[in-house]
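Tutorial, part two.
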Amino acid sequence: MLLARRHEKLHQGGLWEFPGGKVESGEEVFSALNRELEEELAIKPVTAHPLIRIPYHYPDRKVLLDVWRVTGFRGEPQGAEGQPVAWVAKAKLGDYEFPAANRPLIVAAQLPSCYLITPEPGAKDEWPDFCYQLQHSLASGVRLVQLRATTLCHADYLELAHEVLACCQQYGARLLLNADAQLLDQCDADGIHLNSHRLMAARQRPVAEEKLLAASCHTLEELQQAERLGVDFAMLSPVKPTASHPGIKGMGWQQFRSLSEQISFPLYALGGMTQDDLSDAWQQGAQGIAAIRALWGGAEEIDKGEH
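Running the prediction step on this input gives:
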């Protein structure tokens, strides 16, 4: 990721930021992106897509950060306005001091475009095949996994979690447990995913800041509760009808976007999603897609360039 340090005389001066600037009245966002990056870095974006929109209130002003991921450009980036710039590995972003409004952006920059939810693993004699299919998913590019196993008892879930964690670590993927947060004391996964029941019952963030916290949301009320808890990201569903929930109508992209604009953390679109929906998901304010079938067992080759 390319960072730039703000001039001391500016608001939030001396802090690091992702380069950009203000959209002028009547200007399209992508046009503003082109103009600002040419002015600040002497480059011209070629390929880019929306990443996240973050509304934020400082004590003296309110801002909306409309963030795009630039995946291709012409030119050699430089501090064209005399500002220091630095290429920084995603895992090292936490070593730099950013404006407070950038925290959700830093999370979004480190998250992949696809979030795999595992299918039910079945009985123990089915676990070898389950792990085999998981490895295929990881080999295809999946780098964020939620272990969802509602039919397992606590002891069996913990045993399987250790096996799944080992698989994920082999591929550099992060694992979230769809379970009680206390399970992290027994399995050092990367975080916890709260189902809607655990989400609404929680009174404070149940995991340490260095662990990821995610949640399943279906309504504005649940999204607002997730924001109060300080989740790092959430899934919002259902966007489209799904085979697993016949008869339930999806909210559609218009409603998804409307809800996403009212919160300031990354959202994955869930419900009838495939990789063909990624472009629509990005355009409607999503981090990407979450899915079971479409990402399981290497069903589709994940674009590793997005990670």
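The CA atoms of residues 11 and 99 lie 10 Å apart. In part three we will examine how such features are distributed along the chain.
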